[in-house]
Structure formats: structure tokens, C-alpha cells
Amino acid sequence: MPKYTDGSGHRPAFAKLTELTQQTRTKLTHTGQKLNTTRQKLSKKHQLGVAGVAGLGAAAVALSLIPGGGSEASTTESVSASSVAFSSRQVEDVKGGVEKQLNDALTQAKAAAEKKQADAAAAAKKAADAKAKAAAEAAKQKAEQARKAKEAASRAAQRAKAKPVAKAYPNNLDGWIRESLDVMKKNGIPGSYDGIKRNILRESSGNPNAINNWDINAINGVPSKGLLQVIPPTFQAYHVPGTSWNIYDPVANITAACNYAADRYGTMDNVNGAY
Question: Which residue has the higher pLDDT, 5 or 226?
Fold first, then answer.
């Protein structure tokens, strides 16, 4: 039996190597479990890196294994110690590289998530701004339409207010005299209600269709007609614009007769008999 055994047929150095190898395997197993939880989050490039790490770990474990028997104790212990030390350094380096890659991947994933969130917030803000702008534009147009409608209504009211309302007159002697007085006033023809009515009652008794067929005018072929018994030539000569050309029209007859009386006597009020 070789020298420096522990009674089990193995050298003491090999027992230590076995213990260190087991510890290394435990660390690799723990690291592998961490890698499995994040593998789905890593890119293809990172997955290849992890596979390489696993391969290096397996190589490190293989290097740590030495076949038993047939060498001197000092040589075996030296080789075993060197192999174990080399494997430990490799595992630490690999672990550090994996952690760095993992941290980089997590940082990139976090940055991508933050960017996605920022983009979504920007899109939401843009949509809200567009909606607010559209609402403001609609409100502006509605206000403008309301303003125009109000202005149109105001103009219509002003036109209606400015437009003279036709004065209504009763269709009787009183109404005919009053309407004639308004026409005479516009044309500067003098005369009063009483003076006109007094002469109408004497000449025609208030009958607008009255006609004189017996006086000198009738004998001459131009009988007097209407409320104030005006002959056709006089009616045509003193006709007042805006009134009818029908000699029997009460208002036209009165205004033409008053126009003639104003020219000849100064006013119808000065007429007290045949004129």
C-alpha cells in the first residue's frame, strides 16, 4: 500500500480535492438555478454566454478530478492543490461574468420598460391634447355661430323697428279725412279736419260716388264728382302723388280738391261755398 493513506485507500490530498470539488459543484448548481430563472429574459447572445459559462464550469470540475494510485504523495498533493486552485479561480471569474451579464440584461430590460412606459405616457398626452384642442375649436365655432345668430337677430329687430308701420284708417268719412290730412302734411298742403268735413257735407253729404249732372259743369260735359265735387280736369291738374288716379277714390278726391283750394284760396278752410 502506498505511503500517506487514510486507511480507505485514498491519499489525504485526494480527500480534500473531493471535498473542494463537491463545494464547487454546489456553487455551480446554485448558479445554474439562478440562470434558469432568468433565461427567458435573456437574449440569444446572453443565452450563448451562459452556455459557455456552464461549459467552463464543467471543464473546471473535470480538471479537479485526478485518478487514484501510482504516484508519490508529494506529487499528487501538488497537482491536486494546483487543479483545485485553478478551478476555484475559474468559477469565481465565470460567476462574476455571469452576474455582470445578468445585471446588464436587467438594466437593459428596465430601460426598455421605462422607455415603453414613457412612450405610452407621451402618446396618451398627445391624444389628450388633441382631444382638448378639438373640444376648444368646437366650442369656439359654437360661440361664433351664437354670436352671428345674435347679431342677425339684432339687425332684424332694428330693421323691424326702423321700418314704418302702415297706419290703419277706418273705411269711413272720418278715416278718409284723416288719411288725406297725413298725405297733405307730407306734401305741404294746408287744411284742417273741420274745414274739410264742412265742405264735404255741403258738396256731397259724404257720398264718395256723388256726381252733379245739372250745373254748368255738367252742361259743359265735365260734371263735378266725388266727395268734394271736383271736375276731371281739376282733379288731373292737382292730383297728389301717392294717391289713386280714380276721381271717385275718397282720399285722392279730398287731397286733389284741397291742393286746388290751397292754390286758389290759400286753404280749404277759406272755402265756404261753391268753388
Answer: 226
